[in-house]
Amino acid sequence: MTTVTEQSLELDEAGLRAIGARLAAVLQPGDVIALSGDLGTGKTTLARAILEGLRHTGEVPSPTFTLVQYYDALDPPIAHADLYRLDTPAEAEPLALDDWLVEGALLVEWPERLGRNLWPEALWLRLDGAGTPSRRLTWRAPPAWESRWPPR
Fold first, then answer.
1. What does pTM read for this prediction?
2. Distance (Å, rounded) from C-alpha 23 to C-alpha 65?
3. For the domain that residue 62 is a member of, what is the CATH number?
4. Tell me: the pLDDT tens digits for 66-97?
5. Of 127 and 147, which is predicted with more confidence?
6. How many domains does the chain have?
7. Which domain range does residue 123 map to?
């Protein structure tokens, strides 16, 4: 059985953006960051901060309707998925997200939609506090993330 570390902290939006920049610095091909939380808690804000930390300078639209946005010019290449509109885990299969992990990393909003199909070595970040200036970030870090999370 995999040992998972779970902890939490309070952040404002600037703190959330700082965490995103620190995550960008340690992200590797094959990594999955699962971004969980209710609508309006900052999942897309955190994803944008990670992409900006990887030096992406263009627009970062929410992939709610396209399901996946690709940023293949980054190092590592990133696929940003939003699974909110999926009704079953099987609906994610055509997205071929596993294939992306060969050379890139995944940011997955609404990972709960995958059911048991979520990658066991994913860094799980849950945001709570929609509509408030402060967010609670709770994380579950599997062993693959031990030396990289929380980012220093």
1. 0.91
2. 25
3. 3.40.50.300
4. 899 999 999 999 999 999 999 999 999 999 99
5. 127
6. 1
7. 7-143
